[in-house]
Amino acid sequence: FESPQVLYDFISSNFCCNKKCEAANVLDRLLQPMRPDDAYSLLQRESKDGDSLMHSIMRYCVPTLAYIVLRTVHYEQRHSLLVKRNRLDETPFHSLFSGETTQCDCNMCVSKTSNQCEMIRVCLGLVPPSYRVSTLVLFDFSGETVFHKAVHVGQVDFALKLLEEVNCQSRAELLQMTTQTNGETAIMYAVEDTNVLFCIMSLIPKHKQVDILSVQARDGNTVLHFAVAVGLNQTKCILQSCENHADRVALAHMRNNEGKSVLDVAKSYPDVDIYLRDEIRDRNVLVTVSDDITKNTHKGVPHDHGHDDSFLQAEDRWSRFSPAVDRILFGS
Q: Do the beta carbons of residue 259 and residue 298 sit within 8 Å?
């Protein structure tokens, strides 16, 4: 080969499953003696279809090769390699879900599913912590982040690994991200599978729980609207994760764009309706008063209850249990 660039282009264009072990050895020998800036310039090159080498590495899921590439450049440059887009507007992480699943017999090819989790550990472990979440919140051509896509295709291990590799604040940010098409969160996708939903719910930061669960899609539905329509187990999973009774009441009374609360939707599903009303029922006046409040605050006009002691008691209890209730029910 007449130059490192020609050799690099050859590796990129001929990179496939049964050649990736050879590619790893050759690329390691090519990049090791290079200065980080020179290696970075080389790794920015694109193949004929617009992919960088990191796209190919992700597509064929080779964590060992990802480590070889990322360790040769400066700490800050690793982030740039992981957010570089191809002609389909995909980042390398998005390519994890569009690649070959064929494996050879080498020790680099255990299984694609397990390698995806290892790929996350390797790549995010080599990226500065402050850059990790910004690597994961980018949208592809379908308007989904890599976290949405992982949940959408049922890769629960991969989705959980993403959440585990970031701090609580970044985890909450990922869970609140909505798609660019229908405005749904990844938890709304997870409602279809009880096991996936349970695993994700267990990793929600407690101090952000109500904020995450009260996110509304384009049609105004929350994840609890979706859960009620899917089944009883999903509804239980969400409500039982809320430690505060007041939070359950607030979520059950949120309304979609048609003005229907979760309780209204549940009327079409008798078993869910019975469970939901029993779960949020106060032994005194909470349900009755909160019904009255949501009716009168639906259009942003608070109702004057005068000296109704039951209302004052309920309002005091909501505020004491969870500050988030004021934002949901009272709009403050």
A: yes
For residue 27, which of 49, 57, 47 has the smallest C-alpha distance?
Answer: 57
Residue 63: which of 129, 126, 147, 13 has the closest Cα?
126
Opening angle at CA 171, ends 170 and 175, nearest 5: 115
**DSSP letter string, 40-59:** HHHHT---TTS--HHHHHHH
Per-residue pLDDT of 4-24, as tens digits, reads 666 666 666 665 555 666 777
Q: Which residue has the higher pLDDT, 58 or 291?
A: 58
Q: Which of 221, 293, 286, 220 is nearest to 248 (CA)?
A: 286
**Tokens coding 243:** 């430690």
Contact 12, 45 (CB under 8 A): yes
Contacts of 133 (CB under 8 A, 6+ apart): 166, 170, 173, 174
Q: How many CB atoms lie within 10 A of CB 110?
A: 13
- Please give the Cα distance from 78 to 57 (Å, whole number): 14
The token pair at 9 is 């282009």
CB atoms within 10 A of CB 102: 11
pLDDT, one tens digit per residue, over 19-37 is 666 777 777 888 888 899 9
**Residue 43, Cβ neighbours under 10 Å: how many?**
24
DSSP H/E element including 23: helix 20-31
What's the CA gap between 39 and 32, in Å, rounded? 9
Query: What does the buried/exposed string (b/e) look like for 8-22 if buried means 16 or more CB atoms within 10 Å of the residue's CB?
Result: bbebbeebebeebbe
pTM, whole model, 2 decimals? 0.74
Amino acid at 318: W
End-to-end Cα distance, the chain = 67
Q: How many CB atoms lie within 10 A of CB 321?
A: 17
Q: Are 172 and 208 in contact (CB under 8 A)?
A: yes
Cβ proximity of 104 and 18 under 8 Å: yes
Q: Of 117, 130, 2, nearest to 76 (Cα)?
A: 130
Q: Give me 69's structure tokens.
A: 């590439």
